Please model this.
Amino acid sequence: MAITIQKEANSPNLANGHLVYRVTSNQVSQAQFQFVMDIKNNSNNLIQRIKQQPNPNGSGIFDISRIITTEVGPTDEVWKTQYAQNQTYCAGQFKIYFGEEYSNSVSGSVTLYTGLGTAGSPAKTGSAYYYFLDGVTEPNDLYQWDWAQSGSHYVYVDTQDETEEVYQLALTDYDTNVIRTGDYHTISYLNGNIEGEGAFSSDYAFDVYIMRVQEYDATGSLVATSYYYNDDLTANGGPRKTPSELWADSGVYDDQTPNTRLIHFPAGPQNFKDGGTSLQEETTYYLCEFFDQNPSGSLGSKQWGSYRFDIKEDCDFTSTRFAWKNTYGVWDYYNFTLVVTADTDIERSSFKQSFLNYAASNVNYSKQRRGETQYYNKLTEKHTAESDWLTQTQADNLRELFYSANVFIQNDGDFLPIVVTNPTIKQKKNISGQKLFKYTVEYQYANDLTARR
Model:
């Protein structure tokens, strides 16, 4: 009367792909036997109960990705955040339990068992929780059905260890960005304990404590430094309430929630300005660097990532700044700096009436009476934006802009939803034959111009 979990989805993982579990039982020969799986949210409320008969090999195989994708998203609209802010919809924390049901005969009533040897609701689990992001995995990029790159976006370290180490762990593939002083930008990080086995560890964590912004002039000289703490003092970060708290403090490590396990940081010049810290006039580029906390409570020796932003204002063309949900379920950004075009398609609906009004009470002559009459004109604006010449890395990373189903453009201080309409894109694959390569995005606003009547 026991369930054995042979395969479980890793935590963290990406929901839009495959989240595979395989279980076995020593009771599969019982009459009317079925495996039972309960999917619950972090509050232990049941989302879905799934029952499955054993396959010919006696196993129960479950892929819960289609269910989980309905429980995460849409992407947090945090483009303008001024402080570290925890996530709301980009990820979810779930509890997965297995049990079994069977009867003493083929016609008798069935009894539900916990999977641990007693009657009751499913209770066998492999982890305290599973943390799933609203991202996507490709079939050829998996490892044992799991997100192969999960370990490249977080690491557990001893919070008392002061050994210097350098990583690059943000949920983005853009290490270098080109940006204008009026642009918004965010960088997102997993945070704390993300593997369910160590649900609340005071000793080991991926503690993203602080973001340091260092500004440099054209000579490479440092001109300014500012700090953005991941706490709940000024905004909605966490789990720290104040920067002085240590990870091992009660009320910090043991107060983690699904929201504090993914944090969005401000990273654009306009984010900084809105928060009261404008870039210096002489700044030509700046670095956003992320660190842990050392045992004394200040900036630590573990650098979780360094991301460069080169300031380039518009010259001959007005840039189009795109923001899109990337493969990790958070935002990436890119400026298309060359030619922008706009056309309007007009779909006209009309009817034709006679010059003489046969339904009138009189036959007064009127030159103003219409023959051809338009009664509804549907307007659709179509836009294009052209990138500058792209490196291989830039071209590879930008493919997701065309694949993403959630894309916006920054229009002054607003973000407007758009639909990318390119039917195909050509990829940069031939280094010798495609030395000069750029993309053109075709798009239209998600909300058309108001029709004319």
The chain has a mean pLDDT of 93. The longest helix spans residues 392-403. Helices lie at 65-68, 269-274, 392-403. The radius of gyration is 28 Å.
